[in-house]
Amino acid sequence: MTLSFPASRRFIPTLSKTEALPHEGFELNGWRRVPVLMALIGSAGCGLLAQAPAARPAFEAFDVATIKPAAPEPGRFIRMQSAHRFYAKGYTLKLLVGAAYNLNPHAISGGPVWIESDKYDILAGTPGEARPNVDEQMSMLRNLLADRFGLRFHREDKEMAIYALSVARGGSKLKESTGPADGLPELVSVVFPEKEGGFHLQLPARNASMAQFTSMMQRAVVDRPVVDRTGLMGRYDFDLEWMPDETQFGGELASSAAVTKPDLFAAVQLQLGLRLEGTKGPVAAIAIDAVRRPSEN
Questions:
Q1: Burial status of residue 151 (CB atoms within 10 A of its CB: 0-12, 13-18, 19 or more)
Q2: pLDDT tens digits, residue range 83-112?
Q3: Domain that holds residue 216
Q4: What is the pTM of this model?
Q5: Angle, nearest 10°, between helix axes 93-101 and 134-148?
Q6: What gap in Å lies between CA 25 and CA 141, rounded to an integer?
Q7: 15 within some domain
Q8: Do the domain assignments include residue 1?
Q9: 180: which of 116, 141, 194, 236 is 20 to 30 A away, CA to CA?
């Protein structure tokens, strides 16, 4: 894994029909990728005789899971490496809780200092014959956090700084998705190096709802919870391109000396016809009551 980047070359790996994009985090290997919602690329079997689909398990818990301290290298992701192999790389416990409960890290309080510093790799097997979707993966992750990390918490309704996403005065510029109605969303941000340092991002979103877009933003991009107030109920295809600042991606992407793209707030309005505005609002936050470092197996 390296921190060198091509100056202008865009590299997006090609996926086979049985692979899946990671849905959380970012990778560094001559390029960066910051995906949040996993897009599963499924393949349907075909034959002369139709076969009944296999019974879908409850996906309450992983069959087996190994937890180890992560190597001291940049990058993190959560992905299904295969139909039955879940992998979370380079995650702190706080970020794991945020992923499992769909929360911005600022909505998680309590716990010892190490929950924000110690990073872990988790490799786990999933039950049954079917590949678990994102919600099912997170259900199993929640069980693992309780079982292996001893996570106990309570909910707190808090008034917090948030971002509200609404339709801008000129109206939405979003286009209805051309994908199948039952297709899974694709929300994959790709990070490009700038010639004078820093980075810019491209998000080609496909078949995504506004709820999924705001979920991605609050979990991986911005430093506050994000609330969907657009009133838009469809699924959309759109492209968003911007330059991040130090408040985004946990401060892990440096700002560029030269401004070649709009900032996130301007890009959302100019390119999508939406408005991302800072305000205050109620958040169903989590307060950690108890947690422990896990055993490796």
A1: buried
A2: 899 999 999 999 999 999 999 999 999 999
A3: 159-282
A4: 0.73
A5: 140
A6: 16
A7: no
A8: no
A9: 141
